[in-house]
Write a structure and sequence with these properties.
Blueprint (H helix, E strand, L loop, with lengths): L1 H15 L3 H18 L12 H11 L4 H14 L3 H5 L3 H8 L6 H13 L12 H4 L7 H12 L8 H11 L8 H11 L5 H15 L23 H12 L5 E2 H8 L3 H14 L2 E4 L2 E4 L1
Helix pairs in contact: 1-2, 2-12, 3-4, 3-7, 3-9, 9-12, 10-12, 13-15
Length: 289
């Protein structure tokens, strides 16, 4: 079904170009699917609170929805606003975040909160691209998503599900597709009257396309096969943080034996965690930062 619909649209666009009618035709296809299959059970879609949407956006980066569904309400119950997140100690924050992976995002959220509670923001998330991108760890894509979802403002951004939809409909016979070729199409087809629901519709359509035999994103230059987790630095980082979250000080020399990892590799990972602000080193001991 998906391939037949996209193939017919692709042939029509090839013959007629990206006219206003073609744009309406594309939107109709996406919205028709969305009306039947919208993910209304996602809690971040039932709020326009900028803080809550920021939390969801950071959590959803490189993480499966099912995992976020579990952690999102817990996180908001502990830290319901910018001030509560800004003042939390790292040990407490990590215990709530633990299990989400990519722990740097927790630090990023706290750093954003600590910036937003100060002048000139005074606890209010900004609602324009340039100011959003002055916040730590907020790039073009995150800023665009925040504008659309928190403020329902027309913005142009791309993420994995959106990318999948545009490759599926507009690049059926191409390979090695760059985001710079997709972004102008996102801008031209954007529903400026309701960008929030338009992007939700695109994301739900793109999520459904993952089940195709040939995932459209395999043709993107952004596609990278995820490396093996077992034995990776990510796994070692997680184990170190898990150990150190349970005690005040941890002897550095003990980590190699406890984790069955060479000492030089432990030292390298510890140095990375210290540079990122996760841990502090005092003599031969380390502790949560």
């Amino acid at each position: 079904m998906f391939n037949d619909i996209a193939e017919n649209f692709y042939r029509y666009r090839e013959q007629n170009g990206l006219t206003s009618y073609t744009v309406r035709k594309f939107r109709t296809l996406v919205y028709s699917f969305y009306r039947k299959h919208a993910r209304d059970d996602l809690p971040w879609r039932n709020t326009d609170n900028p803080y809550e949407i920021l939390v969801s956006e950071i959590m959803l980066q490189q993480t499966q929805i099912e995992r976020v569904l579990h952690k999102y309400p817990l996180f908001l119950s502990k830290y319901p606003d910018f001030p509560s997140l800004a003042r939390v100690r790292l040990r407490s924050l990590y215990k709530v975040w633990q299990g989400m992976g990519y722990n740097r995002r927790a630090l990023a959220l706290r750093e954003i909160a600590r910036t937003v509670v100060k002048p000139p923001y005074h606890g209010t998330l900004p609602s324009d691209t340039d100011t959003l991108m002055r916040l730590p760890h907020v790039g073009q894509s995150t800023a665009g998503a925040l504008l659309a979802f928190a403020f329902n403002k027309p913005s142009v951004f791309i993420e994995t599900n959106i990318r999948r939809v545009f490759i599926h409909f507009f690049f059926r016979e191409q390979e090695r597709i760059e985001d710079r070729d997709i972004i102008p199409l996102i801008e031209k087809t954007l529903d400026r009257k309701d960008p929030r629901n338009w992007y939700y519709a695109l994301m739900d359509y793109g999520s459904a396309l993952r089940n195709l035999k040939d995932n459209p994103n395999l043709k993107s230059t952004q596609y990278k096969k995820q490396s093996t987790f077992a034995g990776s630095n990510r796994q070692i980082r997680g184990k170190i943080l898990s150990l150190i979250s349970k005690q005040q000080y941890l002897p550095l020399k003990d980590l190699s034996g406890q984790l069955n990892v060479p000492h030089d590799k432990i030292v390298k990972v510890v140095d990375q965690l210290r540079e990122e602000g996760f841990i502090k080193k005092k003599g031969r001991y380390i502790r949560m930062g």
